[in-house]
Amino acid sequence: MSPLCDFCGEQRSMVYCRSDAACLCLSCDRNVHSANALSRRHWRTLVCDRCSAQPALVRCIEESVSLCQNCDWTGHGGSASASGHKRQTINCYSGCPSASELSRIWSFVLEIPPIAESSCEQGMGMMSINENSVSDNWRPHAENSSGADIPCDSMANNVENDDNNFGAWLASTSTSDVHPMSCSGDQPACSVDSTAPKLCFSDTKDLGISKNESFYDDFSVDDVDLTFENYEELFGVSHNPTEQLFEDAGIESFFETKETSAANSNCQVNPAAEARTIQGTCSNNPLSVDSAMSNPGTKADSNLCFPAKEGRPALSLSFSGLTGESSAGDYQDCGMSPALLMGEPPWYPPGLESSSFSPASRDSAVLRYKEKKKTRKFEKKIRYESRKARADIRKRVKGRFVKAGDAYDYDPLCQTRSC
DNA sequence: GAATTACTAACTACCACAGGGTTCG
DNA sequence: ATCGAACCCTGTGGTAGTTAGTAAT
């Protein structure tokens, strides 16, 4: 909870690096993140003025403070007067912006001390600033191949990207991260893979989406970049592709609660989904992580259960490999809100919890989901070219690798059998 | 309409081993 | 504190076997 820089321990910390899980002064931020190309990709944002430990997501205009989701929730969720405070989304950035650049993106911060210029300065072209604002709430944030932003409205109207709405909603219900799910750490897919649209939204209160039924009309999942790109770095184990998240449970499970009684609203069990990553979890605890964590050292699947509310289904996410030894920081690094993970009430997009949608919209959404499920392809990503090159020349017997020198029936180099 | 069968698509395990990371002396 | 050896773990592709989904009967 120290407001001092985690690196130098002398200066007051100003920015939070999610990848490093560290609060840094601007000087150290610059030094640390100019070290190499990977560190330059780290997304940073202001440190919460309240807890001085979490990344701030919003700026309360009335109180002139930057708040993380926890503190925003605590401070603005309680009283009616406070909840009416005008809040502004805080931009995050990567690269090594100068003080003037920071002043520009954080105009509300009065004092940004000068930063020593470094070699990183010449890499300013790499700097990326997440330009969200209150008026841009709930709009998929895309980048084209040149790194320039694509107008979100055009993207929202793009049928090919219609799934992002659902992904954004899902991500927002499970994380407060400025870059939901995939946007954390050094993985290229996070900040430099400009071919895939990235969802960037951070305002946690004023997402005016649910009243628009087109949101549900565009309800499907597969194009959304929900994959935990750096899952292994986060959890230390391999994972099933997140695309499988809805493979078996089916999106229908998310629509099937309108008739659900309050008694079982927390326990939506889809038989087809029991064994997979997303499932209804019988628990009265909004977060069943605790129970799954109760056995330290075991790699039990942890289920995050979002309790059903009227008009919105119970939702649980399973994170294989989360162990009881995992810290809150680990969860936050994976994009999960500590509030969510630590038992505080989850956030629902306004309206989702109280509104319902028509059966026609539901049927349409389900139909669209099924259609896309039929046609989608998940391309394999090669992480280690050297290993691929090795595998490409390995001799095999019935597809299996064989020891060097042993008999084989397939040699990729010969393209023939037993050459 | 329900039950059974046939077919197709998708998924998973298996194998050896280089290379990265960790532990220990 | 540093170094090297030993050990552990991961990921890579083609095939076979299994499972799930769909269509036909």
From TrEMBL:
One GO biological process this protein is involved in is: regulation of DNA-templated transcription
Question: Subcellular location, in the record's words?
Answer: Nucleus
Q: Which domain of life is it from?
A: Eukaryota
Q: Which PROSITE patterns match?
A: CCT (PS51017), ZF_BBOX (PS50119)
Q: Which residues form the CCT domain?
A: 362-404
Does the keyword Transit peptide feature in the UniProt annotation?
no
Pinpoint the B box-type domain residues: 1-47, 43-90
One GO MF term? zinc ion binding
Task: Name a GO CC annotation attached to this entry.
Answer: nucleus
Q: Which key words are in the record? A: Metal-binding, Nucleus, Repeat, Zinc, Zinc-finger
Q: Which Pfam families match?
A: ANCHR-like_BBOX, CCT
PANTHER family listed in its UniProt record: CONSTANS-LIKE PROTEIN DAYS TO HEADING ON CHROMOSOME 2, ZINC FINGER PROTEIN CONSTANS-LIKE 10
Query: Which family does this protein fall into?
Result: Belongs to the CONSTANS family.
State what protein this is by name: Zinc finger protein CONSTANS-LIKE 9
Species of origin: Dioscorea cayennensis subsp. rotundata
